[in-house]
Amino acid sequence: MAPVEVRRGSSPVILGLPHTGTEVPPDIWDDLNEEGHRLRDTDWHVHRLYDGLLPDVTTVRAHFHRYVIDANRDPSGRSLYPGQNTTGLVPLTDFDNQQIWREGREPDDSEIERRRSLFHQPYHAALAEEIERVKKLHGVAILYDCHSIRSVCPYLFEGRLPDFNIGTDNGSTCAPEIETAVAAICADASGYSHVLNGRFRGGWTTRHYGRPQEGVHAIQMELAQATHLETEEPPFAYDEGKAEKLRIHLRSILERLEELALTLKSGEVR
Asked: Which of 75, 91, 148, 230 could tie 237 with a disulfide, CB 3.0–4.6 Å?
């Protein structure tokens, strides 16, 4: 299994896709229990949702499932949200706090290190290479990290999640123009709700690569899956009608980011 797929483009915008993969090596699959085999916490169809929205965009997509190792977690294992419920670098439970590994088959430290080397590191090596390449082309790079999650996950958050969840780690990972522009498009999207730096403020990817003073801007978009799936339960089918309506607004976001990239220069953050 190739751990990562890169599609190179000439746009200053890069799409990160760390959680759309569903591939699990046979040895790891055998260690997962019945609940783990459901792969419920996949970012279902998100790569399809963004496909074709922006010409010449670069995409970096993990093929491996987040139960193998989570490409959007700190490789050290440190929590993204200390004091809050979350899942780790190699999750032991799903988003409903259900065990996903067969008893006695949970990955130990040496197995986690093996997966870090085989999957997590290659994904981020590819992403870092594309960021550097794009920055050399344009003097600036904008990483837009693409995510989705079920609208209701009581273990992770109370109530129902807004449709658009924008994360910039409280404004630290991108120029303010980027944060403001994305939030404005989401606010103007009729029939959708949004929040800026709510429950999801941006994962490790956004926080690690977002260095606006150096010309690298990062922003995370966590979509509620009700916006583009027929149902948020198996088989998690893609809803063409919902998706096409949503894609109008996602296209506007990406096009606006590309426009902003033309005005942002390395070291110039207004």
From this structure: 230
